[in-house]
What we know:
By secondary structure, the chain is an alpha/beta fold. Helices cover 33% and strands 20% of the residues.
Amino acid sequence: MGAVSPPPEIFDRRLLALRRARAAARVEAVMPVLEAAAERLLDRLDDTTRRFCRALDLGGRGAVAPRLRARGIPFVVSMDLAPAMAARAGGLALAGDEEWLPFAPASFDLIVASLSLHWVNDLPGALIQLRRALAPDGLFLASLPGLGTLQGLREALAAAEAETRGGASPRVSPFPELRDLAGLLQRAGFALPVADQERLSLAWRTPLGLVADLRAAGESNAVRARDGRTPPRALFARAFAAMPLAMEAPLLVMTGWAPHESQQKPARPGSATVRLAEALGGVEHKAGERAG
């Protein structure tokens, strides 16, 4: 049996860590967006009566951990690639990598990753590690920007670069699709996996305001295939002239539980005690037999 090939490295994680560190001093400028995303994600906790005691906040940038503590969770650890960004959450802070989690199995009963996992090169591998870090019957919640996020900016930059250079390089991060996420959760060993979508409405006064917000959030381009050359002066002027300033951003939400014997399980095939026709108040017919 041949060796398994490692996943492709789409993102430059070292560069991302540097940009997160620089952004720590100015992330307050985009806190309303981070808080709106965190609120929508943590609203899912209202759907369960489970009480949580040990929570991990992954990449929340100061928007998640205070809300977990406000919900009465006594032990909250905040982890980020950059120490300064992790420290913004207050309380216990840790510099760490989502691709190499530094936690023992069953360390937490709640893990929340708000707008952070879209920079992971090996998302299936990261999900497996996250599931192992959960205690039995622990809950995993994550939100990611979905396919179509910043689409107006992506198209405007590609068109402008094609005009000024005769080609285009990736200047906006690739984003996942909703249809893939539930399957990834199931493959990682989560029970009761669910993936759904919400939308965030975003608007800026100027194109430079959008760029400034991306930098303040530590979300600037970290794709390894990016063009490192200095762009022509006309590139951004042309792109900004064509870029829309209002966007609907898809917010993909993942929910999964660490398996536990108390959880609901699908019934075994053939275990039904009531016929479908009886339950529906109809008449059962054999295969090939016409009704009436």
